[in-house]
Amino acid sequence: MRLILTIALSFFVIYAINFFDIASLDYNIRTVAATAVAIIVLRLLYSVFTRFMKVFLFVVIFLPIVGLIIYYIYSYVTGNPVELFDIGSLMERAQSF
Q: Which pLDDT tens digit goes with each residue over 77-88?
């Protein structure tokens, strides 16, 4: 069933490409097969990238926010002032390195 839907989508993609004058494609076995293979590859890439995107969002957004919350709670409990990011001191340390 999925193969039939992919072939039908291939015909639709070829029709859309011809309709919007992106390219002039004929309806033959080679162009339909190439379009079907491209759709299958795009579907596989989509599934892989959505899995990696979940991990990426967890690592890049969720973990730093949790780390900042823990840092602010730790600073509040110990009474230490919260040190915000200072680009000037970072540049001084980089130059002295």
A: 888 777 766 677
The phi and psi torsions of 62 (rounded to 5 degrees) equal -70, -50
DSSP 29-44: HHHHHHHHHHHHHHHH
- Mean pLDDT of all residues belonging to the chain: 85
Angle at which helices 2-19 and 29-57 pack, to 10 degrees?
100
Query: Tell me, what DSSP letter sits at residue 25?
Result: -
The count of other CB atoms within 10 Å of the CB of residue 35 is 20
Is the predicted pLDDT of residue 97 greater than 70, yes or no? no
Q: Residues 49, 20: contact at Cβ < 8 Å?
A: no
- What pTM value is reported for the model? 0.56
CA separation for the pair 2, 30 (Å, rounded): 19
